Amino acid sequence: MGRGILVIAEHIEGRLNPTTWEALRAGQLLTDALGGPLWVAVLGKDLSALTAAFSDKRCDELLLLEHELLATYTPEGTTLALRPLIEARQPQMVIMSHTYQVRDFAPKLAAALGRGFISDCIGYRLEDGHPVFIRQIFQGKMNADVRVQGDPPYFVSFQAGAFRGDEVETSTPGPTITPVEVSLDPSAIRTHPMERFREAKQAVDLTQAEIIVAIGRGIKSADNIPLAQELAEVLGAELAASRPICDNEWLPMDRQIGSSGQTVAPKLYIALGISGAIQHIVGMKGSKTIVAINKDPEAPIFDIADYGIVGDLFEVVPALIKKLREVKEEH
Hints:
Elements: E1 5-8, E2 11-12, E3 15-16, H1 19-34, E4 38-44, H2 48-53, E5 61-66, H3 75-89, E6 93-97, H4 100-112, E7 117-127, E8 130-137, E9 142-147, E10 154-158, E11 176-180, E12 211-215, H5 225-235, E13 238-241, H6 243-247, E14 268-272, H7 278-281, E15 289-294, H8 301-304, E16 307-310, H9 313-330
Parallel strand pairs: 1-4, 1-6, 4-5, 5-11, 6-10, 7-10, 12-13, 12-14, 14-15, 15-16
Antiparallel strand pairs: 2-3, 7-8, 8-9
Helix pairs in contact: 3-4, 5-9
């Protein structure tokens, strides 16, 4: 193919969304397989700090699209800024992470160029030199193969955790930095963003957590949650839950992981009393290391766990907390 791959970076309030690195890793792998240059596009107003973040990352060119009307995200501004760039560069693919922002503008951008959008993929493979993208359907119960048709560019978004952001390759020197001229008419921006929505005052973005302790039905009662909270505190982890816990209002909805909650890919995921229903697994299977504690040896969670402990969490967790505290004191 060899026509190049364009990765769209995403940032919120001046901070790169961590899934940008996952999208870049996908772009690196696809570039290695298909050939051609790798470009990364960053949109905004003052991009100097974000530019520095890419200084040692392996990509051929960092494209900076700066404009006053891009200071705050809008679907119209993003689409109108990216469309001329894509028409000029003619990439083989446009790669993004499947975030709420991408869900907002990507269909509009793809439709403006008369192309389709393969969304929420969990991976890909090559057949006869052509990529076949993998999407989950029926809430993760089945996988579907999707092949691209028609002329490029092909628009593709990957689910959080589909690729590991910490595996992004670096290079010296870094990418060439290229400012891209952006022409926007204020009258074309019909969206007027208000304050960013947050589900709760203490809402947490679990996608950025390196360690997560998650609880399921095995915790039995809301009165037992402090035990899991203590383990999370010892580990410096975030506390999360499967859907039944949040449905019972034992923890707020922003702590839910799964197909109807957040999708995470921490370095360490500890599942306490979680059986491993497919709806939960699709939200955390990208974790680097999974530790499961469950008294049912047949629990599906053990099928994906790197380490499993068959036992009563009310006996295992206190012993684990005690040992972790001892190790901390020794060091």
